[in-house]
């Protein structure tokens, strides 16, 4: 069985303990590879390598650094099919989604920050005729980057690319549920000639390998994407050590449909924003609010289209919804469907496991599920489910829907559908979310700030925000 290896000091290595964990193919429900069960010793080795490499990498001419990162992007493009297949097998997502979204975005991340770093300039402030201030930004040191399982290579590169581009060396840990493409990525880094120790990838469990990264005194900056509960633990460890922290956490995003919307566009996109990647995207709109005049028509049409979705083998090009990432996660999602019924909800469609014949009969498949009849306050509508499950609720006024939308402890993203520009501005201004999409969803420009309010996180990724995060600013004031 294939053994995934750590990538430390430029070499693919076994964990020092020699221990491995099972890695599942969620579409088959079977172990298909092994992953290092790394611990603090492996993390220590990775930090030493990263520290050793820092002087060379941080002082390298920015063009040369960018060149190496762009070479990695080119290798990702070359291996598109191989990486897409690996992502689909490891995560359960349809291979066509991995081929069209996940892997192209991984190379785009590398290219975006590589080229961006060449335009990253120091600021200067002229204080009348009395002084000149300039702000030098230097790489913060060894950065710790920890990513989740839903968009494995996409989010892994979204963190490490700005860190490396800013001149940091990195100790990174992908999710233990989806380690494969980060492993393949480490092979591409070697092929691209990334100097030893610049990027180190330590595989393993969050509480063991992940926690060792967070606690390490020589890692001054942590960039984390994952659940809010984990984010809280990380903040509790890192805050007293005064580490720089970027936290991208969970969401419970509202999708608001006004009666004056372009219904066809709203329906087509809402199906995607509900069920893409099995609903396992932090930006999925899991609470759909529809203005009362349109409610019945919207629900009927939305349910009809939901029933037309194909749940099945992720490697089949016709599949819209693949497998959930793990049995434990599938059971968590199922428990919320039971809860929704206990809370008085009606399962209009879906709600059950799907048996896919043949190779995938042991896989973790669920029907896309639509629930109506719930209040916005119930647990089903307040807690993140992170699966192919949406609720639909009617509303009468703007004030009412704003109160519903803002009623959770999360504030990641919101989508709204209206042809009325004034309303779009007014509602956007009052939504307590870091990212608002008007008449679209997941339409990304990598220069824009990305992140959440409230318990959806701290800080913003993307564009200059990401490059600045991985640097320390030093102001020099020269009295004239
Ligand atoms: P998770 O919090 O369980 O794990 C995320 C990562 O943290 C994994 O690599 C895990 O091993 C590691 N980890 C766990 N405990 C740790 C600890 N004590 N110290 C250090 N590392 C630790 O999240 P998940 O289940 O992998 O991902 C799903 C969650 O991620 C959802 O809540 C989703 O909304 C969120 N998410 C947010 C964004 C965003 O941009 N805001 C993007 C994608 C996913």
Structure explained in plain terms:
The chain has 480 residues and is α/β, with parallel strands linked by helices. The chain folds into two domains: 2-249 and 456-479, 3-Layer(aba) Sandwich (Aldehyde Dehydrogenase, Chain A, domain 1); 254-445, Aldehyde Dehydrogenase, Chain A, domain 2. Helix content is 40%, strand content 23%. The chain is built from 15 helices and 25 strands. The strands form seven sheets. Strands 15-18-19-14-13-21-22 form a seven-stranded mixed beta sheet, sandwiched between helices. Strands 10-9-8-11-12-24 form a six-stranded mixed beta sheet, with helices on both faces. Strands 1-5-4 form a three-stranded mixed beta sheet, with helices on one face. Strand 18 (369-372), helix 12 and strand 19 form a beta-alpha-beta unit. It is globular. It starts with a strand and ends with a strand. The mean pLDDT is 98.
Overall body shape: globular
Helix content: 40-55%
In CATH, the homologous superfamily of the largest domain goes by the name Aldehyde Dehydrogenase, Chain A, domain 1
Q: Structural class of the secondary elements?
A: alpha/beta
Strand order of the largest sheet: 15-18-19-14-13-21-22
Reading off the top of the CATH hierarchy, the class of the largest domain is best stated as Alpha Beta
Largest sheet: 7 strands, mixed
Mean pLDDT: 98
* Rg over C-alpha atoms, rounded to the nearest angstrom: 23 Å
The distinct ligands, each listed once, are: nicotinamide-adenine-dinucleotide
